[in-house]
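sanity check this fold:
=====
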Amino acid sequence: MVKLRLKRCGRKQRAIYRIVAIDIRSRREGRDLRKVGFYDPIKNKTYSNVPSILYFLEKGAQPTVTVHDISKKAEIFKELRINQTK
């Protein structure tokens, strides 16, 4: 099973997280399938590769709670509903 979750990067006390599609059996810093965005909690900035996220969600990937909240703020789920109605 594939999950969309955060992968920690950056320096000490300056964490930046990548949003990655990863197998659930892999550890947090393990090998990911694809990088689909990043999240900077200090500057509160987010970049999402929307087509990649939609691709994995349509294939059955489950986002973690944090990634779900980030995606909800970026209105990715609205685009998912629009694509499903077409």
In short: The chain has one domain: 2-85.
